[in-house]
TrEMBL record:
This is Biotin transporter. It is found in: Cell membrane. Keywords: Cell membrane, Membrane, Transmembrane, Transmembrane helix, Transport. The keyword Transmembrane helix applies. It is a multi-pass membrane protein. The chain crosses the membrane at residues 24-42, 48-64, 71-89, 95-120, 132-157, 169-191. GO terms for molecular function: biotin transmembrane transporter activity. It comes from the Bacteria. The keyword Cytoplasm does not apply. The lineage of its organism: Bacteria, Bacillati, Actinomycetota, Actinomycetes, Micrococcales. GO terms for cellular component: plasma membrane.
Length: 201
């Protein structure tokens, strides 16, 4: 049984899925995209958490790959980085990163992919406004895990953790949500145009 057979609801990459080989290729591509965007990293003064492109990758993966593939992709990303591959921000890797101050954000990627994938399978990724809401939901979930983890590991008070691990990223989160809101519905229109002749035939 393939992942596709277990997840009958529709999602953007479904036309390219259906076998384990294709599933692995899609998951590998998602890991590579996340690793690439992770290298877009801007330090935040006074915070161990940089501004990165990782959450944009999480939004795109979660909103296009469905629940099972999205979770598999983000789980593989966290696992491979934890094993030492230099795929986290600034080329970092290893268990120390996962259990360090920013590790909660990495684990939040998996939760965000699960929820976003579940909602995308139910049509939340078809229009710009709903996709924007979907992207913002995913990012909020990342912070919902990352900020308390940061407070616990770094010894920050709740207000300090919010100031260091959430507030500096609000504007960037809105921008990433807007990017997803433009790209994903447009991609759906392309997919539907490509499917139309086959359906008519």
């Amino acid at each position: 049984m393939t992942i596709a057979a277990a997840a009958p609801r529709d999602y953007l990459v479904r036309p390219w899925a259906g076998t384990w080989v294709r599933d692995l290729a899609l998951i590998g591509g998602a890991v590579a995209l996340t690793a690439l965007l992770a290298q877009v990293s801007i330090p935040v003064p006074g915070s161990p958490v940089p501004v990165t492109g990782q959450t944009l990758a999480v939004v795109l993966v979660g909103a296009t790959m469905g629940l099972r593939r999205g979770v598999a992709a983000m789980g593989a990303y966290v696992l491979l980085g934890g094993l030492g591959l230099p795929i986290y921000s600034d080329g970092a890797g290893g268990v120390a990163v996962v259990v360090g101050p920013t590790g909660g954000y990495l684990l939040g990627f998996i939760l965000a992919a699960a929820v976003m994938g579940h909602l995308a399978e139910r049509g939340w990724d078809r229009t710009p406004l709903r996709t924007l809401a979907l992207g913002l939901t995913g990012q909020v979930l990342v912070f919902a895990v990352g900020v308390p983890w940061l407070a616990l590991v770094a010894g920050f008070a709740p207000a300090e953790a919010i100031a260091a691990g959430f507030t500096p990223f609000i504007v960037g989160g809105l921008v990433k949500g807007a990017i997803a809101g433009m790209l994903i519905p447009a991609a759906w229109r392309v997919v539907r145009r490509g499917q139309r002749p086959a359906e008519q035939g």
